[in-house]
Amino acid sequence: MPIGRKVLTWAVLTAVMAVLVVFVGPTLIGPENIVGSKNVLTTARMIPLPVDGPESLDWDPQGGGPYVGVTDGRILKWSGEDLGWVEFAYASPHRGNCLSNKVEPACGRPLGLSFEKKTGDLYFCDGYLGVMRVGPKGGLAEKVVDEVDGQKVMFANQMDIDEEEDAIYFNDSSDTYHFGDVFYAFLCGEKTGRTIRYDKKTKKAKVVMDHLHFPNGLALSKEGSFVLSCEVPTQLVHRYWAKEPKAGTRDIFSKLPGYADNIRRTETWDFWVALHSKKTPFSRFSLMHSSIGKFFMKTLKMELLVFLFEGGKPHAVAVKLCGETGEVLEILEDSEGKNMKFVSEVQERNDKLWFGSVFLPSVWVLDRW
């Protein structure tokens, strides 16, 4: 088939799919149903923010917070109903063009947050700047690591801290794309993502898992025996054994019913995974082959890609995994996106579940017991 005719065919197919989403909607190409899920996230309480995108949450060693990283490059702290959200820290000194609803690379984009309990320092992954650290008093963060094995950390994502070993584990999701091109990073089909261990004592970093297709969420197990990394397009959760007797080996821990964002360890040593989206016909099709994904990258705007990937109906899903076997224990949803959507993280704390969002200016709290 001539190149011109092939491009025209793809363009017509794309246009038809877009029309079907808009006019036919979820009936035909909406998100798939998950058997056994509970549609309870509609009852969660919303706490609005003055800035978009509280992608990750954490609490300081004294229990203050939560702290969240937002679109304009700052870390905000929740100080209760009376004071609301107050500024705690910022990723970059270049604040002149930082907007509340738009990511500017010079401002940084804080993603996964982790407090170190013994020092009170806050470490975070920045989608442009690498792994950063700020002291207990806040202010301007400093760079910890932005290069591994001579290769730039392009897209630092989520992280966790092994305080016993004085080590940090984090994901570098792509060697090509930063946070601003997040959808391109997993549609391109390139397996260039890495899971990295940084030794705080020696200040040396090494890759412990590579050839990953957009690794996103990361969490350590109880006592740091293994680290989990969520590979978005495949829905697989990879496991790297950090300690004996399996140290240095890797396997598959679990398979998810959708596309993961962050993963967090629970108070009982299980894991909560936030799903950006359930599987949809468009997501299945676009991930069938890298050439399909790359075509959509070239022909569709980011907003339309997100719309199609969600099946025209943004929603919210949280999946609980057994910490020993990786078995799915529980699935919570807002299947219609009436209250929650675009969730990026689930944190279990004091009989409540807290939820962040990669796009929206709000977090949510759900009473569990």
UniProtKB/TrEMBL annotation:
Q: Enumerate the SUPFAM superfamilies for this protein.
A: Calcium-dependent phosphotriesterase
State where it is primarily located.
other
Query: What are the UniProt keywords, alphabetically?
Result: Glycoprotein, Membrane, Signal, Transmembrane, Transmembrane helix, Vacuole
Q: Does the keyword Transmembrane helix apply?
A: yes
Q: Which organism is it from?
A: Microthlaspi erraticum
Q: What does the sequence similarity comment in the record state about its family?
A: Belongs to the strictosidine synthase family.
Under the GO molecular function aspect, what terms does this record hold? hydrolase activity
Q: Which residues form the Strictosidine synthase conserved region domain?
A: 157-245
Q: What is this protein called?
A: Strictosidine synthase conserved region domain-containing protein
Lineage of the organism: Eukaryota, Viridiplantae, Streptophyta, Embryophyta, Tracheophyta
**Stretches of the chain forming a coiled coil according to its record:** none
Instruction: Tell me where it resides.
Output: Vacuole
Cellular component aspect of the GO annotation: endomembrane system; vacuole
Superkingdom field: Eukaryota
Q: Where are the transmembrane segments?
A: 7-29
